[in-house]
Design a protein that fits this description.
Chain lengths: 437, 92
């Protein structure tokens, strides 16, 4: 086994050369803080006789997951001095299995964004396509893995935030089934949708990290039991019916790339392929944002400047304010049931449609995004920005598992394919993903 | 049209953002008003297994250290711990 210390030092050297901590954004800018005790901790892991499942693995963590003693700023000036007084459950589990936390990664401010541009500490570059957005909100976590600054990382996914950066950076990003991974210690964006998950360069590595962090936790009120058998993931499924999502994709090249890949794999393995239509999928974005605006407004009431740092309304950037101010407005107008309540009912509709679809197929495959990433700093409308999430949001609304896997490049930009399976079929989803690597 | 890069938001821009957010929400609301709500049952989730009994949570989770560590203004006892947050005066 490679020594943790040796591996850590290799990564630190790469970070020193290619990343600029809290810098100008000229380099990758994926890390906000490095773990000052990492070398000491690596030595302690190496000295152990009996090592855990993650020994030798160097892991980066998104800046909205509490790691004791580290600055968990959510990439915001509001929390720039916040020092985590405890470990999130996922961090505790990683440490128990001898994973080493190398540092805290950049992200969209309070996870509000799909591009990686809204961080108060500068945007993150896409190591796989310099100049393009890396995707968000787990931008730093994806970029750090893609740039080979660590083995794997943790992100959080409320509507797209693991899968979109996974796709644009050309790596694996897994959104596990809602409630299968504890969110205790996660700074919430929208508590009915948030989920922590892994990013890695291979399905096997992502599965390994997921197998450590998932499972029941009494500290998370919605937590449910869940297990990942790593041996099963390497077994090829004997029979499969693959569903290809029937959805109009603006960039036909993306759809062609995916359909060709699916048809090739299906032919090689004798799997069935069928088109699958989700009747109201085009409503997903309109359902998601009212839910997020209201829940985020509610979640941020604790950021009043008394318990943590600064008052959020005084120090946050435009996208965060849009969600807070919008959330406040529609909460005031909610007595007519026009916004949140209506969105909740429509969410139920998507849930039913996806549940029915998963009775007909083993998985639903689609592009992760309907379009390629824009250049960092480009002017686009809010609606255009929200469109990036059109294909990922439905799986947050239903709460099933979904992942992004790279399947090729267009214009030298990585393109990700989304594989989604029913709730608590994360193991099957990873098994299918292995076929596409 | 705007870029999504972080910048300090002025009071004037805040007002614009508020109006824009309301307008986006109204557009979404209009789209959602088209489906037949009567067909869909109310969203209601029961998780009896997740109900916690009083005293289930360990003291460490609600320790004073966790609660007060990051508060900018707090009292300090002789033991170096804090018991309460000092809120601003006459600003409420």
């Amino acid at each position: 086994m490679v020594s943790t210390e040796k591996r850590l030092k290799q990564y630190l050297e790469r970070i020193k050369k290619q990343d600029t901590l809290n810098g100008t954004g000229k380099k990758i800018n994926s890390f906000l803080q490095l773990n000052p005790d990492a070398i000491k901790q690596a030595k302690a892991i190496d000295a152990k006789k009996k090592k855990g499942k993650l020994a030798g693995k160097i892991i980066a963590v998104k800046a909205n997951i509490n790691v004791k003693g580290m600055n968990i700023s959510c990439a915001s000036k509001v929390l720039e001095n916040y020092n985590a007084p405890y470990d999130a459950t996922v961090i505790k589990k990683i440490k128990e299995e001898d994973g080493l936390i190398i540092g805290i990664t950049n992200q969209d401010e309070f996870a509000c964004g799909s591009s990686g541009e809204t961080s108060a500490f500068g945007p993150t570059q896409n190591p796989a396509a310099l100049g393009k957005i890396p995707g968000g909100s787990s931008s730093g976590s994806a970029a750090a893995v893609a740039a080979e600054f660590c083995d794997m990382s943790l992100g959080s996914d409320t509507g797209c935030s693991i899968r979109v950066p996974g796709s644009f950076c050309g790596i694996i990003g897994v959104k596990p089934t809602y409630s299968s991974v504890s969110r205790y210690g996660l700074c919430d964006l929208s508590m009915s949708l948030d989920q922590i998950g892994p990013l890695a360069r291979t399905v096997e590595e992502a599965a390994l990290l997921l197998s450590v962090i998932n499972g029941y936790d009494k500290r998370d009120a919605i937590s449910q039991e869940s297990k990942i058998n790593l041996q099963k993931i390497n077994q090829k499924p004997k029979q499969l019916t693959i569903g290809i999502l029937d959805f109009p994709i603006k960039d036909k090249r993306i759809q062609d790339l995916i359909e060709n890949k699916v048809n090739t794999i299906a032919k090689e393995n004798n799997f069935k392929v069928k088109k699958i239509k989700i009747e109201n999928i085009d409503l997903a974005v309109s359902i998601y944002y009212p839910l997020v605006y209201v829940e985020f407004f509610s979640a941020t009431r604790k950021l009043d400047g008394r318990r943590y740092g600064k008052k959020i309304e005084d120090a946050a950037g435009p996208e965060v304010l849009r969600r807070i101010l919008g959330g406040a407005e529609i909460t005031k107008a909610e007595h007519k049931g026009r916004y949140y309540h209506q969105a909740l009912k429509a969410k139920k509709l998507i849930e039913q449609e996806l549940a029915n679809a998963f009775k007909k197929v083993d998985c639903i495959i689609s592009p992760v995004t309907p379009k390629l990433p824009h250049n960092i700093g480009d002017k686009i409308s809010v609606q255009e920005m929200y469109e990036y999430d059109a294909l990922t949001i439905p799986h947050n609304l239903y709460g099933n598992c979904a992942l992004s896997i790279p399947i090729g490049k267009i214009d030298n930009i990585p393109v990700g394919m989304q594989i989604a399976c029913d709730r608590f079929q994360d193991e099957k989803m990873l098994q299918i993903a292995r076929l596409f690597e | 049209m705007s870029n999504f890069l972080f910048h300090k938001v002025s009071e004037k821009e805040k007002e614009q953002i508020k109006k824009q957010a309301k307008s986006i929400m109204n557009d979404f609301s209009k789209k959602l008003s088209k489906f037949d709500k009567q067909k869909i049952p109310e969203s209601f989730i029961e998780r009896p297994k997740s109900e916690r009994q009083e005293g289930d949570i360990s003291k460490e989770e609600f320790s004073k250290e966790i609660m007060f560590k990051n508060a900018p203004n707090k009292n300090n006892t002789l033991k170096g711990t804090s018991d309460y947050i000092i809120a601003e005066k006459k600003k409420w």
